[in-house]
Predict the structure.
Amino acid sequence: MGIKDCYAAIPRQWRFPRSILYLFVIELLIEIAALALFGIAQPDLYRTQLWKEGSDHGWNSNPNEIIYAYANHRPIHTPLPWSQFVTNFNVVIAVLALFLLLCKGIMYICHIFYPLISLPIHAALIALYTVSIHAQAAPDMSDSEHPQPGAPWYITKSCGAPVTPRLKGYCQQAKGSFAVTIMLLAVFVIYFVLSLYSLVRPIRSHDSEEDKFDDAESQQQQRPWEMVHVPPPTPGATGGLKSPMTPRTTAFNTLSGKMGGAGKGKGKGKEKTTTARRDEKLPLRHHISMGDEVYNGPSGAK
């Protein structure tokens, strides 16, 4: 099998092409929201404040422990959900996903956004957003006295009391950032499933065209038996339609018959010859309107 055969064997059609357009619109709306939330949170609008709020209630470690560790030259790592890495990583993947969405839209308009191209793109996006969800919901076990075995408190708890009222808006923004990350991951999983399904169960265009050709050919073969051409009856024939007879037609038939009879009957007598010559000189209106009456000329009209 050559390269052309391998290229021709690649499915190029989506099983549900209209669903791809719907996913484009949904992804665009969520991407705009995610980019806005992640951009607002950068570089450190509320991350450290939420970390400190959780330590005041005993829900997680204290951010001052990082300062004490650096002062005592003690090695320590910042817990993953409170690190600058997560904030920067979320902004990067949001910009990357929006750029890829524009590329996907252009390729779809140009009819080159094949399922085989979509599969690795969304597989990479699924991996990136899975890392983001894991980092946002990672545990904080740096403080043995106040361990956080699950997700941060702003995800698992309400933003109401006993949280400080001025941090309520920041808490809701952090919740929203985590929510849009999950929604984008769900959208990319749907892309991936549709791409895989379109590759595994492709649309067989050649078979469908052959089926259409066979159906058209069978219809053409059945058509002469279903619609037999019946010739129309000959006008004037026995059992058919009679030709319409009007006074004008009758007059012309009479005239042609008399003229023909005059040519054949020259030797039958002087009387018939004279009558034929007289009828031959009659005007056409006499034949049309008077029938077999004898024309007496202008004097007869008086």
Notes: Residues 47 and 91 are 14 Å apart (CA to CA). The longest helix spans residues 168-200. Residues 206-211, 237-241 have pLDDT under 50 and may be disordered.
